[in-house]
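Q: Could you fold this chain for me?
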Amino acid sequence: MSSYDVAVIGSGPGGYVAAIRCAQLGMKTAIIEKYNTLGGTCLNVGCIPSKALLDSSHHYEEALHHFEEHGIEIPGDIKLNFQKMIERKGAVVEQTTKGIDFLMGKNKIEVYHGMGSFKDATHIEIASDDKNETIEAKYSIIATGSKPSTLPFIKIDKERIITSTEALSLTEIPKHLIVIGGGVIGLELGQVYRRLGAEVSVVEYMDRIIPTMDGSQSKELMKVMKKQGVKFYLSHKVSAVERNGKEVVVTAKNAKDETVTFEGDYCLVSVGRRPYTDGLKLERAGVKANERGQVEVNDHLQTNISNIYAIGDVIRGAMLAHKAEEEGVLVAEILAGQKPHINYNLIPGVVYTWPEVASVGKTEEQLKEEGVSYKMGQFPMRALGRSRASGDTDGFVKILSDANTDEILGVHMVGARVADLITEAVTAMEFRASAEDLARMSHAHPTYAEAVKEAALDATDKRSIHS
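A: Sure. Below is the predicted structure, expressed as structure tokens.
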């Protein structure tokens, strides 16, 4: 029987990063993955393939609608090769997952492919197609991630009634895609297929889209996506989803308690994700999970069994790849006797639509609810020379700072490349910068980042220069 210092179950961003950091710190490490490729949901059927399709569809939309204004004329009709687009997405995924294989070899991490389950607190059984084996581990890290959620009355057939997994590998462009859920996944994939010519209807239970982000971001993104042709139906409670051949009918109640129906050829169910612990046999190790299926952990991400830890989507908190990565590093360093720390308030959230949406820290709604006195500074992207040059004038940067100390409490952005820009805000807030600190920093001209400086100036005595 092979023995290890650490065994990591699951090879998504949390799992493989945890394994690498454990190996870097001198621990003999194994990683167990039930699928044939490493990388988990994020690399195989999540973050990476969805961004590949978002970028490809964005290029198509630019060629179709915006090249001419830049003086680029393409003779004849612009044609879409959807199969090639899907193949490119597959190639990006393959290249990325092979990169994880390389990293495992580089760091001398033993890789096991098969279904891992606890035999007891220190032994893990691995069942694959051709053999069953057991390994011993002094410590184990559960990093099994999450799966798409559904509603009790919806039967996902993976053909016409689909989740994000199937939406990434369709063989045709929907005529009418009905999206249940106005969160990150539904909006990103909805925008992909709207760009490619589908009619897209987003049916959302709440009274706004991306409801966990700042309200101003919800309004701005919906305004822009409406201009792009996406239809929104807010405050609609879905009660039934039925398939009849190639047609899907979604029934819902609107805010007036009226029954409405939506007819389309595909329905994307994107109502969130659930922790995935199926087959782990946690009970054999004595590990507790709560009523939501989350593995229970303390502040050190340690379960009730002292040598077993859990990270990422399978525990409490936002289901974000970068949050899982930070937790993987934290556990590895705790096992090595170090004292790492994660500030969960400073884990940024991003929606990769175009314009992008990015946020870190407290929203205005949260500050009001908590009774915190704050100042607000905001700057529109349309006032930037860089935005006008690229044609990306939608959006804004908003900075919220403490009314007494001027410490930055939250930063919320909509615009071109704000997924990258939000890191400036994270860095500033990690060092507890004030709005005036950001306002006094030199920002290159012309850049999108100037909007951060201008919003900080606006938060500092309303002295923005360019608005």
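A (continued): The domain at 161-271 is CATH 3.50.50.60 (FAD/NAD(P)-binding domain).
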